[in-house]
Amino acid sequence: MLVNCVVYQDGKKLATVGVDEIRRYSNLPGCFVWVAVKDPEPSELATLAAEFDLHELAVEDAQHGHQRPKLEEYGHSIFAVMHMVEVAGDELVVGEVAIFVGTNYVVTVRRGTERGFADVRIRTEREPELLRHGTGYVLYALMDAIVDRYFPVLDALTREFEEIEEKLFAGHATRGNIEGLYGLKQKLLTMKHAAEPLLEMVGKLYGGRVPQLCAGLQDYYRDVYDHVVRLNQSIDSLRETMTTAISVNLTLIQLHENEVTKRLAAWAALIAVPTMIAGIYGMNFRFMPELTWKFGYPLSVGSMLAIDLYMLYRFRKAKWL
What we know:
single chain, alpha+beta, Beta Polymerase, domain 2, Methane Monooxygenase Hydroxylase, Chain G, domain 1, seven-stranded mixed β-sheet
């Protein structure tokens, strides 16, 4: 599905055109065409590939999707794949965007995500001086926007972790907490798979041999790289904290079980003493001492009570009860 097709010249929007009009503008001096499509049919992508002479391997990757984030050069063009991560209820939805960049075109192919790049388009149109850099600046704006969108997702996961942490230290160390923490750790792993490859991707655009399309924009790509480094550090830090929280939860569960075991043992001891005394005097032997003693019964009951009270005092002093 075609979302938008806009022509820019010398940093300003020239016209919104149809796909059949692209050739009319793409060869004009200082012009480039920015085409955005979502979940395109093979025929639609084939039309764009023929129009801009896109590399067949890059087109195949964009058509099938499920690619690892990457950046590849095909002659004087660039092909980049990035993951779009969004929060949907309690789950993370991972989409994908493939970006084709040439001297006179930018083509974005979105799959599995509803949020587009209208805000990025508005931002670039408000900066004509930067947009004069051409398609290299549009690539920067797209990458910068995608990386910036990761941070609210990470903030949401951090808040979710803090809620579990509050339950954990409020005395609710349960199996549910472990399941919640493990699920959260899986979400962070999804974030890590999306963010970590960007370190290598963006590094190619500001250090060493920079592609000609991105020449003069190294400072902007370095800024994106700094954001990616901070994002990865935050993800790693939260994952480590989560691993510690899982260990703490297991330890608290074990301590709670130990406390229960101690209480059960204490009550068992309190019951065992009178049971032992009653058992002795309940034996059916003919010749037993104190059987005919007048104070035998009250003394036995008193002994049971006195011993249990003493044991209860000691257990409470030792904080077993």
